[in-house]
Amino acid sequence: MSTPLPEAASEQAARSHAENELTDLAAECGRSAPGLGITTRLDHGHPSDVMREIGRDADMLVVGSSGLSRALLGSTAADLAGNHERPVVVVREAKAADGRVVMGIDGSETSAAAIDFAFEFARRRDRELLAVHAWADMPIEALAPVRRWDHNRNQLRAESEAVIARCLAGHQKNHPDVRVERRVSFHSPAQALLDVADDAALLVVGSHGRGAVRRALLGSVSHGVLYRAPCPVAVVHRDS
Asked: Mind telling me which Gene3D superfamilies this protein's record contains (predicted)?
């Protein structure tokens, strides 16, 4: 974490201040989760660079969102979500900390990694899962003039339900105790997830960015929910 420093602080005073902040934070974590092993570490450098280096061998990297509003995401959180190979969870104060886990499904290998992460989280927390598949990046009303002879709403829903069933099959077999609800949306993928995020404990999305592309920006869905979701968001990369 990074912390504001007293004005005109010497290097030693700044380090002492940061160490006190870490001690207080560790104590707070201990009160929230008694018995949890907690260590602290104080490093010098840009927060996202330090966190990325420390988190290379981590199962998960968790950061807070320091944006002043939902439309603003802290630069450290945004950078790590786009550049870190391991799952990154960006935490806001959840409206429903004991709510369900919402996950986006698009049928890709990246989606499979996100689904696995969502199932594991739901299993550990004894939460229900909501699997959401959006049929297209455009609303069906916009597509209707072009595709009215090829598809109707029922056909599109059936196709989407088949995608969900295929993607969930192996995961549900491995996690038989996790209850899963399925939902098909004809909104854009980001909007479909945001529509059901208000009562979510966690929103899980996959990021399709790879290599230099990933280093430059997040996928549009990941970007959209990170900046607008009212709940914590987990971004899972394909190679996580």
From this structure: HUPs (3.40.50.620)
The domain segmentation of the chain, as residue ranges, is 1-42, 48-237
What does residue 36 show for φ and ψ, rounded to 5 degrees? -75, 135
- Alpha-carbon Rg for the chain, nearest whole angstrom, is 20
Amino acid at 108: S
Q: What is the CB neighbour count within 10 angstroms for residue 223?
A: 20
User: In the chain, which ranges are continuous DSSP H helix?
Assistant: 11-32, 47-54, 75-83, 109-125, 140-147, 153-174, 189-194, 211-216, 220-228
Question: In this structure, is the dihedral angle defined by the CA atoms of residues 64, 68, 71 and 73, taken in order, positive or negative?
Answer: negative
CATH architecture of residue range(s) 48-237: 3-Layer(aba) Sandwich (3.40)
Instruction: Name residues whose C-beta falls within 8 Å of residue 39's C-beta, 6 or more positions apart in sequence.
Output: none
pTM of whole model > 0.85?
no
Handedness of CA 149, 155, 157, 159 (dihedral sign): negative
Angle between helices 109-125 and 153-174 (to 10 degrees): 60
- Tens digits of pLDDT across the chain (240 residues): 555 555 555 778 888 888 899 899 899 989 988 988 998 888 888 888 888 888 888 888 888 876 544 444 567 777 777 666 788 898 876 666 789 999 999 887 777 889 999 999 999 999 999 999 987 654 444 445 545 545 577 888 888 899 899 999 989 899 999 999 999 998 888 999 999 998 899 999 987 654 333 333 346 788 788 888 889 999 998 765
